[in-house]
Amino acid sequence: MVDVVLGAFYGDEGKGKIIDYLSKDSKYAVRFSGGNNAGHSIEVNGKKFAFHLVPSGILNKDVKAILGNGVVIDPKVLIEEINNLKENGYTVDNLYISDKAHLILPYHIELDGMLEDIRKERKIGTTKRGIGPAYSDKFERSGIRMEDFISSNFKKLLKINIENKNVILKVYGYEQMDFDKIYKEYKEYSKILKPYICDTTTMLHKAIKNGEKILCEGAQATLLDIDFGTYPYVTSSNPTIGGVCTGTGIGSRYINDVYGVIKAYSSRVGEGPYVTELNDEIGDKIRELGHEYGTTTKRPRRCGWLDLVALNYAIMLNGITGIALNHLDTIGKLDKIKLCVAYDYKGKREEYFSTNLDFFE
User: Fold this and answer.
1) Partners of 97 in the beta sheet?
2) pTM (global) more than 0.85
3) Do the Cβ atoms of 21 and 31 come closer than 8 Å?
4) Active site residue 358
């Protein structure tokens, strides 16, 4: 009963429009990983929406939109998106947030920026929105979940975390976090979001039992996966097929079609290896023709030819059953189009993708 939409490259493949299209036949649209480092752009009736947290499928009023437990949530950003939808005449009564999803708090954002500064020439190119530090807390078991956010434990947990983070910030000469100020602000956010928070895993399994169609939507993409991407130049979660199960609580036996979204060329935002990148006038032309600027960061994207070695890797990892191909009209404006069909590594033809940085260099 479950279909999945995933990015097959470095993100920004145009997943939003595919999700919006497929969600018309679904009862549920579920976001399973990442945070507001993602960006899905959809234009409806001349109005453009840029979603960073809210599942793209929410624009279909008959769809229940769920933020799964694998997502890390900045409540301030989420509330801004909710208000934007309301102002444009959309209901958010169909939005649900997993009680097991983790919070992004101001100290996560501060630490994200600090860590990038410390890395200097080895910087990863994060969006500095606190995603990595929030996942770090989750796995270090000091994170605050949405169920904590709306409970009486929130004040105690927040105080402990701020005290601990202030020790780290002090060592590196960064400004201390003000507990009273943060608690006062975020307590108000918790009141706003409380009606949306529930046990979404049980909800989804009831839907499966009732034969209702579910669409799981990915953020980021395969080559940014924390395990299978070009580490360390990756995101902090699993945007590949495994993330669907761990980020929603849906078992693998229920997954049907897996759609890999690609463009007729490729692009990448941030640091890291990128074999088919074009640092020339052709790359610049593709960027302008395809409007390749980040939805979240507005950064110009690095552009290049379509890499079939990387695509085969994504198909293998995710068990992709179908490809959604975007931007044929963009690449069609060029006189000549090239594809990467293999890598030349020290004079040897390689047809298998590797995440080894020495190999890429």
Assistant:
1) 67, 197
2) yes
3) no
4) no
pLDDT in tens, 328-342: 999 999 999 999 999
CA distance 74 to 71: 10
**Does residue 269 share a domain with residue 250?**
no
Which residue among 169, 193, 217 closes a domain? 193
**Blockwise average pLDDT, block size 10, the chain, 361 residues:** 95 88 92 89 78 87 94 97 91 95 97 89 83 96 98 98 97 95 98 98 98 94 96 94 98 97 93 92 95 79 96 97 96 95 95 91 82
Confirm whether 205 is a catalytic residue: no
Domains identified in the chain, total number: 3
**CA-to-CA distance for 71 and 266, rounded, in angstroms?**
26
Q: Tell me which of 3, 12, 20, 137 is the catalytic residue.
A: 12
Tens digit of each residue's pLDDT (9 = 90 or more) over 134-184: 999 999 999 999 999 999 999 999 999 999 999 999 999 999 999 999 999
Question: Cα–Cα distance between 253 and 319 in angstroms, integer?
Answer: 13
Of the candidates 3, 20, 40, 102, the residue annotated as catalytic is 40
Amino acid type, 30: V
Distance CA 357, CA 93 (A): 46
126's torsion region: left (phi>0), alpha (psi -120 to 50) or beta? beta
* Pair (180, 109) in one structural domain: yes
User: Domain range holding 154?
Assistant: 102-193
Domain co-membership, 11 together with 66: yes
Q: Extract the tokens encoding 50.
A: 């840029």
- Nearest Cα residue to 261 out of 331, 335, 315, 339: 315
Using DSSP bridges, classify how beta strands 2-7 and 255-263 pair: parallel, antiparallel or unpaired: parallel
Out of 261, 291, 308, pick the residue that ends a domain. Answer: 261
CA 207-30-61 angle, 5° bins: 80
